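re: ur question from earlier - yeah i can do the single chain one, its not a big deal. heres the input i used so u can compare w yours
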Amino acid sequence: MRRVKIYDTTLRDGTQAEGVSFSVLDKIEIAKELDKLGIEYIEGGWPGSNPKDMEFFKKIKNIHLKEAKIAAFGSTRRKDKKVEDDPSIFALLKAETPVVTIFGKSWVLHVERALRTNKDENLRMIKDSISFFKKRGREVIFDAEHFFDGYKDDPQYALKTLKVAYEAGADCLVLCDTNGGTMPYEIEEIIQKVQQNISSPLGIHSHNDSGVAIANSIIAAKMGVEHIQGTINGYGERCGNADLCVVIPNLQLKLGINCLPEERLTSLTHLSHLVNELANISPDIHQPYVGKSAFAHKGGIHVSAISRDERTYEHINPSLIGNKRRVLISELSGKSNILYKLKRRGEKLEDISLSKEVLSRVKKLESEGYEFEGAEGSFDILVKKASGKYKKFFKVESFRVSVERRENERVISEATVKLKIGKRIMHTVAEGNGPVNALDNALRKALEEVYPELSQIHLTDYKVRILDSKAATRAKTRVLIESSDGKERWGTVGLSTNIIEASWEALLDSIEYKLLKER
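and the output i got, formated as tokens:
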């Protein structure tokens, strides 16, 4: 099987995305996970450009990575300056990484307008910078910035920059579509021309401004390019870089080109979610391969088919990349969706009327505004009620919430809850940083003495959706709550024209789901 080396630049190019910032500890954690995945190169940043990157390079030296090589990124020497006297070159050397990635200009427009120098001096800058690091034992990767635009403008000069870099000792020449405007057919034509003129190992670095970064990377690999650059989740400046979470499985599972040890591909979904979490960015649920919805099935006909053979509506087995199949429950569901869900929950399916009853209830509730796609906890409770297996653990006598702002103090929410557990009346009061938090605290306070397992639960997400904005303050509000006990996550839903009542309904379902599961 042919092998392609993966070069990850999440920690440098990825951080240039709007809204993305990693602490040094975040970068260390991501580097460790990339190493576990089997990524060959990790670009850590641009030493000298900021103190954070210098600290990263200092700390990463003391961490043992089994697979990955750390690369420091920087530019060629400045014009009309000796390479030995250039502080940016010295900063790259000081990073003490085994790999140095040097970018240089290959487009005459940039040479003359951005660098404000001439073509010959630019070639000397490339040669001097690469030679400097090769003499000091570094592996050098040359990023030919704006190569495809440069080739379209002046092919002879663009090729000359590659030849100079190769003759200076560069270990790999990376063709960069820096502006992200090159079409896949152009990538193919230009790489073919480069291969006819240059015998060096080649790489590709694609940006996504035209939405084809992944396609361009795959075409390059198919043509024999052996070094692919990209970022986790496609983070990057403007519209981002080639998304390695899509590039890697496409190469490995579709083209038979080896990128990672086969058994490690199952960690890809986890890594995608971890990077999103550290960047404090909500995951794209529709992201190919690793997105939550990538293998989610909603239509009844689809679910009926995958129940017989998953290949009918899935291009790969989701477990290969660490994802999982999901069947959604909604008004579009058929009997197959319900049967699939019931079977997964271990329900016996002799009574087909149960699935019909559950489906009828789901469609009725969703017509009112409920949604069960992200509320599997509420769906479980609905199933138990329909099957006669529902047990009521407590009865709500009343609840009340007040919001008060005292002079020169913060706003305080206070909730009072009155419950009946067997013959006991539990009457509790609790404060919170908002009305829902106060209700949650009061509810737990009343129940945890009798049901101590509820202390394991914490809310992980809270979403509010106004269903009919034209109705203004009279509109129905749907609340989705996600809860976790440290082992499992589940969603519950509430609906009302009163946001507090909708939240209370979702809270109750969250508690009841845990009790029904445990008891």
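The mean pLDDT is 92. not sure if urs matches, ping me
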